[in-house]
Amino acid sequence: MIFFLIPIFVVVFDQISKILIKQYFIDHGLVYSSAKILGDYLRFTFIENPGIAFGIDTSKYHIYITIATILAIIFICFQLKLSINTRNPDSYPLAFILGGAIGNCIDRILVFVPIFNYNGVIDFIDLGINNYRWYIFNIADLSISIGLFLFLYNFIMIKTNSSIEKNI
């Protein structure tokens, strides 16, 4: 059951955070400027990213990226179901990745609905020190990163355990 609650929690938290950030920054005339949260270490900077990861511009291929994202979500759903049925340790990583993929996919779909006035995926978490900044990201991106980290952790643990068993 938790494997279905994780993506739901991620999507709800991601979408609420994006709506609140967008509304706050637009209402206060702060679009494309930063609000310091923890000094220069953590800022909220509202941007709408028409591209993909790390600001790579793919705006002229937006429809294809959106379709590919939907297909990836369907694939992840099947993998998650299979993983749960086989008690595979990859269920947690897949649940986090699924939540993040759905969160960003919602933004991509809303670009096609004019009344929502979306120009891309909303990003706002801005980490760094002074002028040395990481790429601006969102809760969905963070969830995908957590899922990938958990995949890597599982992979390393399985390799480590199998090499220990071979040596016994």
What can you tell me about this protein's structure?
This protein is an alpha+beta fold and 168 residues long. It has one domain. 59% of the residues lie in helices and 14% in strands. The protein contains four helices and four strands. It has a four-stranded antiparallel β-sheet. The longest helix is centred in the last third of the chain and has 29 residues. The mean pLDDT is 91.
General form: globular
Strand content: 5-15%
Secondary-structure element pattern, one letter each:
HEEHHEEH
**Average pLDDT taken over every residue:** 91
Strand order across the largest sheet: 1-2-3-4
Q: How many structural domains does the protein architecture include?
A: 1
- Strands, count: 4
Uncertain ranges: none
Characterize the biggest β-sheet.
4 strands, antiparallel
Sheet/helix structural class: alpha+beta
Q: How many H/I helical runs?
A: 4
Rg calc? 18 Å
> Helical residue percent?
55-70%
CA-to-CA gap between the ends? 37 Å
Provide the fold topology.
Elements: H1 2-27, E1 34-38, E2 42-49, H2 62-85, H3 91-110, E3 121-129, E4 132-133, H4 139-167
Antiparallel strand pairs: 1-2, 2-3, 3-4
Notable features of this structure?
single chain; 168 residues; four-stranded antiparallel sheet; 4 strands; globular
In short:
Helix content is 59%, strand content 14%. The chain has 168 residues and is of the alpha+beta class.
